[in-house]
Design a protein that fits this description.
Arc Repressor Mutant, subunit A, 6 helices, 3 strands, Transcriptional regulator, MarR family, MarR/SlyA-like, WH_DNA-bd_sf
């Protein structure tokens, strides 16, 4: 096995700063979303993903893949969202084993009410702190990492 390539001081500062920023940013955005809209981050992710589809519905398996969750974990979360009237589940019309998650009118109203405040928080805590050039760099580097981590393994 090769010797580890330890991070130098510059790299370690960037890595530790990124990790701290990510934790603090996630915590603050989640806190504000719950306080202002009564939604958790996973609630918001489900509602926004569904609201962005033309017919406001997705296969459960596709939604789980988008959220990087197991189908079981998502199913449990969706059950709680169903109790609140935000989503419903339907049997897949051509595949009896699959289910479709559907945004309800109450779910649509919830995401429409939450989105302006959430976007304002994202701007306040990240976007507006960056120059246009830094936003371009952030977009490019995050896409590079996402592409690498999303590529088929093997």
């Amino acid at each position: 096995m090769d010797a580890p390539r330890w991070l130098d001081a510059r790299e370690a500062r960037a890595w530790r700063g990124y990790r701290r920023m990510r934790r603090l940013l996630d915590l603050e955005l989640a806190r504000e979303l719950m306080q202002d809209a009564g939604l958790s981050e996973p609630d918001y992710d489900v509602l926004s993903d569904l609201s962005e589809t033309p017919d406001q519905r997705l296969r459960l398996s596709e939604l789980a893949d988008r959220m990087l969750w197991s189908r079981s974990r998502l199913s449990h979360h969706l059950a709680r969202m169903q109790q609140r009237g935000l989503v419903t589940r339907e049997e897949h019309p051509s595949d009896g084993r699959g289910s479709i998650v559907v945004l309800t009118p109450a779910g649509r109203a919830a995401i429409e009410a939450a989105a302006p405040g959430h976007v304002a928080a994202v701007r306040r805590h990240l976007i507006d702190l960056l120059t246009p050039e830094e936003i371009d760099v952030l977009g490019a580097l995050t896409q590079r990492v996402v592409d690498r981590l999303s590529a088929p393994k093997g």
